[in-house]
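Support request, please re-run this one:
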Amino acid sequence: MARFTHTIDAKGRVFVPARLRDSIGASLVVTLSLDEGYLSAYTPENFRQIREQIAQLSGTDPAVRRLKRLIIGEALPCDLDGQGRISVSDELWAQIGVKPGDEICFIDMFAKLEICAKAFYDQQKEEQGSLAQMDLTRFDVRGL
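Re-run finished. Output below.
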């Protein structure tokens, strides 16, 4: 659980943080996130489970069809190369407003990685303020 920053190379590749490679294995499935400005990266097994759940939803519901197109249809299997990099398509990078040479953040979120532009992350962090400004009482998390 952490945030890591890496730079996209000229071919659209980025190093997956070494600390995460042991837990994720040899490949990831990268797709759009439910949150604007983010991509989500899952292990193939986790993505298979998500896909199975989405497949159970009614195909007659327009929101379900949109969900399928945006999550399943945009999904890109990415194998880690010998140096620990994944190659993400220009289309997916464009969804979060990054291009080769830009810095991105990997954020470890338990069953998935969130990926966003470092500039976007820094801007959101500044705009949202500190945790001290949030009402966390509804979450009932002890020990924070």
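The mean pLDDT is 94. The chain is about 35% helix and 25% strand.
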